[in-house]
């Protein structure tokens, strides 16, 4: 065939997607729109270099090579809770706006505080410092008699697989992030009441869900539940956030119980990490294992990157070879490199 001859061809992908491509000599060209649809590819045109790049996702992670318990929290200076679906109460605390109403979400409030703590470290901005300390005081003032900050709405987490969690309930992600706020507030102000408040929250890590956040994987390994469903859902990001919170408070106080809860969680994490590895992305939870769901709840790319950030921080603390191996695999998935 003449190498200069060009003709239109019909392209059929996966036996159900169709488009019009080109044949030039012995080479075939497929429209980008079909690749985007058939393989969930994302295109990036770089005008300066006149290059077209294709990715499984354009989302990228930021390296966390050395996590510091009183330092920038997981690159949260790049967060912008102000642009989330929130409204602020009279004291400047964000309330999350749901379809069923406005509620205080301890995780969102803590993320707002940790964002501004990280911005304060970066820019030495007094306004960010004040916003962070305002959040820390909220946690100080709103801690309940059980040591936590309960969610005051019913939780329909994955309703096709789990029964609704009834209010009030506690979340390991809310507890862990609150503890990270309080440990940093104590470091910043030299006021030990923040650390004391954080230590009171450890009781809920020893209390079985749904009254607390403790679940037992294989009736042996301690897992701290983001959503206290029955059976457990084993949500990975919430668990790792809670481990970082426990670590932050242990480093701030030297408390042995806090250290033990953290260490027990690390043992669990290393046992369970491979279960979240799907060969080309991660699973958000293990409901496909604990319920009759039957298939993995595949993490969106944003959550996959969150898994990488959290595992990077924990690996920088633990320097564990198994964690490193899994971390490298998960980074490769962002490049379209599948596990072998």
Automatic annotation (TrEMBL):
<dbReference type="InterPro" id="IPR008928">
    <property type="entry name" value="6-hairpin_glycosidase_sf"/>
</dbReference>
<dbReference type="GO" id="GO:0015012">
    <property type="term" value="P:heparan sulfate proteoglycan biosynthetic process"/>
</dbReference>
<protein>
    <submittedName>
        <fullName>D-glucuronyl C5-epimerase C-terminus</fullName>
    </submittedName>
</protein>
<dbReference type="Pfam" id="PF06662">
    <property type="entry name" value="C5-epim_C"/>
</dbReference>
<dbReference type="GO" id="GO:0005975">
    <property type="term" value="P:carbohydrate metabolic process"/>
</dbReference>
<dbReference type="InterPro" id="IPR010598">
    <property type="entry name" value="C5-epim_C"/>
</dbReference>
<dbReference type="InterPro" id="IPR039721">
    <property type="entry name" value="C5-epimerase"/>
</dbReference>
<feature type="domain" description="D-glucuronyl C5-epimerase C-terminal">
    <location>
        <begin position="144"/>
        <end position="331"/>
    </location>
</feature>
<dbReference type="GO" id="GO:0047464">
    <property type="term" value="F:heparosan-N-sulfate-glucuronate 5-epimerase activity"/>
</dbReference>
